[in-house]
Structures are given as C-alpha cells and as structure tokens.
TrEMBL record:
One GO location term (cellular component): cytosol
Keywords: Iron, Iron-sulfur, Lyase, Metal-binding, Transit peptide, Tricarboxylic acid cycle
Catalytic activity: citrate = D-threo-isocitrate
Record InterPro entries: Acnase/IPM_dHydase_lsu_aba_1/3, Acoase/IPM_deHydtase_lsu_aba, Aconitase/3IPM_dehydase_swvl, Aconitase/IPM_isomerase, Aconitase_4Fe-4S_BS, Aconitase_4Fe-4S_dom, Aconitase_dom2, Aconitase_mito-like
GO terms assigned for molecular function: 4 iron, 4 sulfur cluster binding; aconitate hydratase activity; metal ion binding
Protein name per the record: Aconitate hydratase A
GO biological process, one term: tricarboxylic acid cycle
Residue intervals of the Aconitase A/isopropylmalate dehydratase small subunit swivel domain: 558-685
Source organism (scientific name): Solitalea agri
Amino acid sequence: MAFDIEMIKKVYERMPARVEAARKLVGRPLTLTEKILYSHLWDGNPATVFERGKSYVDFAPDRVAMQDATAQMALLQFMQAGRPKVAVPSTVHCDHLITAKVGSSEDLHTAEVSNKEVYDFLSSVSNKYGIGFWKPGAGIIHQVVLENYAFPGGMMIGTDSHTVNAGGLGMIAIGVGGADACDVMAGLPWELKFPKLIGVKLTGKLSGWTAPKDVILKVAGILTVKGGTGCIVEYFGEGVTSMSCTGKGTIANMGAEIGATTSTFGYDESMERYLRSTDRNEVADLANGIKQHLTADAEVYANPEKYFDQLIEINLDELEPHLNGPFTPDLATPISKIKEEAEKNGWPTKIEVGLIGSCTNSSYEDISRAASLAKQVANKNLKTKAEFTITPGSELVRYTIERDGFLETFDQIGAKVFANACGPCIGMWARVGAEKAEKNTIVHSFNRNFAKRADGNPNTFAFVGSPELVTALAIAGDLTFNPATDYLINEKGEKVKLDAPTGDELPVKGFAVEDAGYQAPAADGSGVTVAVSPTSDRLQLLDPFAAWEGTDLKGLKLLIKAKGKCTTDHISMAGPWLKYRGHLDNISNNMLIGAVNFFNEKTDNVKNQLTGEYGPVPATQRAYKAAGIGSIVVGDENYGEGSSREHAAMEPRHLGVRVVLTKSFARIHETNLKKQGMLGVTFANPADYDKIQENDVIDIIGLTEFAPGKQLTVVLHHADGSTEQFAVNHTYNEQQIEWFKAGGALNIIRKQVVN
Ligand code: SF4
C-alpha cells in the first residue's frame, strides 16, 4: 500500500478538537482553509489568532512530494542533515527529464539511458531514507499524488509549483523550494505567511462543451496572473458538488497560474467516489467520519462576503468554453469571441498541433470525453486536420484508457502517445522544425503557455483549453472554429456538426494497471549505499559549509553591484543549467550571470580586483576563493524575487561570497540565504547604495555581538584611501543567528542528530 493510513488516522483524530479550539479562538465560523491550517500548526492546539496576509506561522505538513529535477538538490541537502529516515511520508517522481519525440516506449528508453545516473541516485537515496520512488514512466507527480496520496483535510508541500493540484481532493497543497522540503523531511517546521482568502462560488452546472478547465480559465481572466498572490482560493457552491474530483484537480492545478498559494474544495461525494475507485476505501471511510470538519461551517458559504477577503461568483449555466493565450494563461477569450480576437490581433488561425494530457488534464474523464470526439471523426467521415498528441498523466490512467479502447480511438485519428511524463508541457518536446522559429499556432490542455514553454520556439502561439475543446480544434485545424455552433465539411463534402463530448467520470470497470511503476523503500535503509559517481558532472555530494570564524568580516572584495531587477533567474539561470541542478559546483558556473553590473551595465562582466581585468562573475569569484578572499554582492530592491530556488543561495555560499547587501530582499530568498549560513543585510538608508564603488574593499563590523534587531556596520575602503561607514539592518532571529554561526541550518540539525 503506497499511502500512509496511520498518518491520515492521526490527522483525522486530532482535527475535530483543533478545529473547535480555532473556532473558539477566532470567535466566528471557519472556512475550510482555516480549518486545515489551524489543525496543522507546528505547536499543536491553536493558541493564537493569526492575521491574514500578515502573520508568519510554523506549520507541520503531512507529506512531501518531489519531482526529479528539484528532488536532486533537496535530497542532497537532506543527506547533510544526518537523519536515518524522513520525518514525514515523502515521494520522488521521475517525470520532468523525459523528452517527448518519437513515442512513449522509445522516448522512455532514451531517458532511462541519458538520465541513468540521476535516476540511480534518486532511486537509491529514496530506498535508503524511506522515500517512495516512482520510476520514469510511472507518471506525472501531481496526477500520481492525486491517485495515491492526496486526502481531504491534509496538508502537503511539494517541490513543484503545481503541487496545488492536490487541492482537488480537498488538501492544502503548496509548491515550495528544495530547502523547505529538506527541512520538513528532516523534522523541522515549515513557515508560511497566513494567507488571505478568495472565495469562488460556483452556481449552476457544467454541460455540453464546457468543462472544469473553463472555470479556471475564466477565473484566470478575472484575477490575472498576479491576482491570487498570497491567497488561498476556496471553491464552493452547487457547481462544485456536481463536478468530478479530477475536474476539481484541474481547477486547483491552474491556481498556480493566478499566483495563488493554493486552492481547495470541501469534501463531497465526488471525492468519496474518487477515493474508492483509486483503491482507498479506508481513507473515504475515515473522511466520512469527520465530514463536517472537511468543509467550511455552513454559515461561511451562506454569507461568504463576510468571511472571504474577496469573492467571485461564476454561473456555470452561462459559462462558455474558453481559450486562454497566447503567451499568457490569463488572456481569456470565450470561444464565441475567438474569431474576432484572432483577426484583431493577427493570431495565426491554422492549428498545427493539438496536445492533450499533462498533470492538468489527463484524468479518465478528460480522456474519455476527448475520445468521444475522436470517435466522431470516422463516424462522420471527417479527417483530423492538425497533428494530435496525448501525454497521459500516469500509468494507471494510460493502462486503463488502453484497456477501454480510447488509445485505439486516438490511434485512428493519427495521434501520437507520448510517455507518461511532462514532455511538451515543460519544453521537453523535440518538435520537428521548431528550430526554424516559424510563426504557428498550437492548442493544448496544459496549464502554462509562456513563449518557448512547449517547443522552444518563441513564435509558437500556444492557447490553453479543455481537452475536449483542444480535440475539437485539432479535428477542425482552425482556431476560429466554435464546435458549439459551427459546421465542418467532411470528406464527402457534407456539412457535419460535432456532437458535444460525453464521457465517464470514472472507469465503469474500475482502474487497472499491471505495473504502476512504484518502488517501496527498504524497511531498514541503513545498509543502502547512495549511488553518486565521484566523476559525475550532474551529481555531487555536498560538503558541509564552514562555520563562522567568530570575527568580523574584513577585507571583502566587491564582486558585483547589481543594478535593477535581480531575480533568482538572474542569480541562477534555468534553461540549459537545469541539467546541473544536482551538481553544486557545476551549476555555480551560472552564478549571477544574468545580473546587470551597475558600473558597466553589462551582464556577466565584472572587475577582478586582483588583476584589474573584467571577466565573468563566476570565474572572478572563483579567483577570490582561490586566493582565500571573501567577497560581497550588492543588490537593489527586492533582490532574489521569483522562485524559491535554493541554488540561488547555495551557489554564492559555495563559491565563497560572504555577504549579500541589498536595498531589500524577496523574503523567500532572504530565508534561503539564512538557511545556507550566509549573511544577508539591507541598507538602513537605501541611498547608501550609491556610496558603493567598483574598487571597494568592505568590512562588516558588529558580528561578535550579532543579535536580533541590532544593526551591523559596513565600512567601505575606497580606492583613493578614503573610508565611509553606514548602518545596515538585518532580520535574523535568535535561531537564524545560530544558523549563521554554525555555517548553515543543516549543520545544526546534523549536530542535534549526533547528540
Ligand atoms: Fe509541471 Fe507540466 Fe509536468 Fe505538470 S506536466 S508537473 S505543469 S511540467
């Protein structure tokens, strides 16, 4: 059995008392989100009222999930913690590193060969530390989590932004960086700013061509890509209860596209049906036992405007199918307006490829409804005009849809079935001719459609729609086709209309699979050796960072004074560097190569103060390191915004940068710096940024009395012999100061384990 029933029992046993305590404490009815959050407090029973959008709270998530690209550094760090086993149930999923090219078996084989060392590492480290391992081909992390691990009222984190998908089964599921995952696996609390709440009330019922995907496409149009930031979205209303659990998963999945922390739904019969059909009767029975706690208090949904910070209402009876795009998932156009918009904006209307599947939309229901359209191609003497591909979300779904004849139906319209993996959704699509960068249109049922996301071609106009609409559009080959109203001309020259899609929420004969691709960990992993070749260029075991030397930091060379925006992408670029996510020294060759040097306005070109020559940032820093000289990075406002990528903090630490001094930090990056034992400080007076000169040698004074709330002093030694000094602020608390002194949080955890 893959899921941990004992853990779920514990969560459900403690939930009623904690919900009751929270209700008393806040003195009003509770939303579902609040019930789940308050029952997952690190300190146990609720004792403080948290302020939405303000309070930082320590939580105790129930699970951790990691995908193969991000799991590498998370687990290399976890190994540093010295724990014999993960503290909470955790899983690894091999889905991101498989290129879609020829078709599922060949592509899978190619990936197994080219990523062998990564897979061997992930498999052995999972085996050793009690982590469930899902092999390449088993499926996409979020689909596999929904099928096996998600449970109503639970809380999980995952090292992927679409971890939020599990909200479809009533969880609070949140995407995080590897450092956070490492902490939770090591038994530490996980901190989150208590979110604001957006309520979405769905009235009416989906019918005809409209699908759950259209709900979130509409919401994205309303809220835009930033509208959910810092918020949890809670859906409710009659429209929710009439929708399938996997449909809810699709909506929750794309909450990431509106920047939401996560989305969730109250427990209902669709969830119970899904739990039972995926072999989790015990979970369904337990959930039924505490159902009233797995949804909001009745008063909340009766008067939602009183309990949510923002309220949106959508009538599903009036909702039209949508296409969102191109180039951004919040540009929402109802299908009846596409023709007009395409003409106005010059979008290419010939559809080259329709792609269905991915973690967003590859449920049995999705596939069966898309297949009902594919079937009509032969029945109505049509010919599919565009290419058509399917990326099943899991082997469980793939096996079942093959058994039920859907894959054969798709085969008859010339479809290509890719491996159960991310493939075209994450740019791992070796699309023939993409390198020509021709302007073209594709439609897909994935979630993101930024330029280059699918095939690397910046001129591919990608539109996001439901799998049903994507299939209909691929058949028509025309972006302006509205299947609800328009006719097609078939091979006999007759006018025909597609019937609205039909399908089954769940397989009538039940799900089936021969080998789901799961590898359980060893009961006792102490004898298992983790496979990392010392000559590998993709993986490298980590060495603990050195502890603070106990003195002020003096004689630091200015490495770079970054100008303007400096996101985690500028600090640690993605793209070709993804390959080195498990090799700290190699990936450090991208350190700050995207940052703009204040003094010459160039990227990756800074002065080496030892030679006076200009060169790349990483090489310059390596020269300082080789000479045993520390350095400092100076940044502008909101330094480190973007992702929670811990590499952006680990690389400077690894290469010997001692201090990052900025006008302000993005909070997650600031915490990541602290965790790695780095000193991150901010100008008390932001105008002091202007005092930093290119040839400065810099001291940080006051570290021997480093204390919460106490300023430090920066002394600048300019090249002309003059000096200036000013105060800098920091946000280190007692514990974080200990991290700094020990050389990093993991050094402390390891000590605790040894002691
Ligand atoms: Fe991310 Fe796409 Fe993979 Fe889903 S299918 S996990 S969105 S890359």
